Amino acid sequence: MNKEIQLLVDKGEMLPLMEEFYTIQGEGYHKGTAAYFIRIGGCDVGCHWCDVKESWNADIHPPTETVKIVAQAKKYSDTVVVTGGEPLTWDMTALTAQLKAEGLQVHIETSGAYKLTGIWDWICLSPKKMKLPTQEVYEKANELKMIIYNRDDFRFAEEQAAKVNKDCILYMQPEWSKRDKVIPEIVDYVMAHPKWKVSLQTHKYLNIP
């Protein structure tokens, strides 16, 4: 990457775009609604069960001008979801300012491990044990989505729930490869602890991206 492009990436005026697509939001509070997804490459959080590990290496995803990303997004939906990878690896200020200038609702799905940049209408926080969220994202998260892979994840979920703001909606979501084992455990847990809700990856059941 030449120095000029690197400077634009550092400023968030170009971002390593892995993919972008129009689909149905499958998870959490907005499940079932149409949205345009922007998947940004780059993540060093390193979840062993990640289903988009090809997003981890930002170098294999072409730096793309944010103006081009926004021009494409506004053709499809009034709701845009920025995901990754870990989108907060990069400065989200320029991208979100341009999306908001087009009158779009802008959501993020993040581990919260890096500084919160950008203007967001909805923050879905999904903490990971390897790199915990910043205090700011705990305070501003609209929903907490805890991925349940094993029994210890229930402990971790409660630990994280104690750190978010009082209005944050709490979700437990089975890790897809373990769903047959953990769904019954999640159902029992949520029935015993009704402050939690169940989130499923409904897009996988619908066989859509």
Any overview of this molecule?
By secondary structure, the protein is of the alpha/beta class. Helix 2 runs parallel beside helix 3. The protein has one domain: TIM Barrel, CATH 3.20.20. The chain contains 7 helices and 9 strands, in the order H-E-E-E-H-E-H-E-E-H-E-H-E-H-E-H. Helices cover 28% and strands 25% of the residues. A 9-stranded mixed sheet has the order 3-1-2-4-5-6-7-8-9. The longest helix is centred in the C-terminal third of the chain and has 14 residues.
Can you give keywords for this protein?
209 residues; globular; S-adenosyl-L-methionine binding; 7 helices; TIM Barrel; alpha/beta; lyase; 9-stranded mixed beta sheet; 7-carboxy-7-deazaguanine synthase; 4 iron, 4 sulfur cluster binding
Map the helices and strands.
Layout: H1 3-10, E1 14-24, E2 34-40, E3 63-65, H2 66-73, E4 79-84, H3 93-101, E5 105-110, E6 122-125, H4 135-140, E7 143-148, H5 152-161, E8 169-174, H6 179-192, E9 196-198, H7 202-205
Parallel strand pairs: 2-4, 4-5, 5-6, 6-7, 7-8, 8-9
Antiparallel strand pairs: 1-2, 1-3
